[in-house]
Automatic annotation (TrEMBL):
Keywords assigned by UniProt, alphabetized: G-protein coupled receptor, Membrane, Olfaction, Receptor, Sensory transduction, Transducer, Transmembrane, Transmembrane helix
GO molecular function, one term: olfactory receptor activity
Principal location class: membrane
Places the protein is found: Membrane
Membrane topology designation: Multi-pass membrane protein
Residues of the G-protein coupled receptors family 1 profile domain: 43-294
Higher taxonomy: Eukaryota, Metazoa, Chordata, Craniata, Vertebrata
Gene Ontology biological process terms, A to Z: cellular response to lipid
PANTHER family cross-referenced by the UniProt entry: OLFACTORY RECEPTOR 56B1-RELATED, OLFACTORY RECEPTOR FAMILY 56 SUBFAMILY A MEMBER 9
Native organism: Erinaceus europaeus (Western European hedgehog)
Protein name: Olfactory receptor 56A3-like
Main function: Putative odorant or sperm cell receptor.
Amino acid sequence: MPYNSSLSVEVSEFLLNCFVRSPIWQCVLSLPLSLLFLLAMGANATLLITIWLETSLHQPMYYLLSLLSLLDIVLCLTVIPKVLVIFWFDLQPISFSACFLQMFIMNSFLPMESCTFLVMAYDRYVAICKPLRYPSIITNQFVAKAVVFILTRNAFLTAPIPILSAQLQYCGKNIIENCICANLSVSKLSCNNVVLNKIYQLIVAWTLLGSDLILIFLSYTFILRAVLRLKAKGAAAKALSTCGSHFILILFFSTILLVFIFTHMAKKKVSPDIPVLLNVLHHVIPAALNPIVYGVRTQEIKQGIWKLLRKGG
């Protein structure tokens, strides 16, 4: 229901204004976004099936990889299909409840992914810095506790964000200048004061993602120091190759989010389409890269995939 200044009507649905003023963006993005989505879904599904069916991969590290893949799949399914439907069929409406459900999943699952990166960095730290104690520290029980911590910490702390937004009164404007139901894009349509909403999201985002990034950086600092001390031939190069690719991916995950935040803050100096584009890409590019960097480059995963392919053939 479009905005009418003469009426004060409760909004029952929103319209996602996803590059509708820039149809060229829709054409340009449609194909690569579709391919990235298929790559993300296919690679993560392959990784999950391989770990599930191959008993030799029923180990703590691979359980964490499974969690990462599940989070990526949910995030992709929450965001990308709706964006593609808007591109292809111009179906902009999204119901009130669906919008806030999408907001909850995005706000809780992204920090869950960041926290999973942290636990995986700790796993690598123990494996390289305390190899003799690894089997006694990184156990199935440790993974179970870590998963419970990841889910409860992030869901509990981020749940108030969509709840606060849903409690606001939307009395006319219903056009979201975004491809997704981002909290700030939605709450600014309200006719209430949204200062509390903005402050809470800012504090939670920096607390969760900021603390995770600092601890991940410390873990890889200790790992780097331990790796440089390795004297076995080729051991240091192999460890650096593995951990280096992991750290670069984590840095990419964090950097694209920070770039989005800063471009959103400086929206008067950049095109309004840039933060929207970054927000969409942040939900699909890491999801496409994670299973490749963490999974396919791992020898055990590659062997597991080949075993399944041979069985299937």
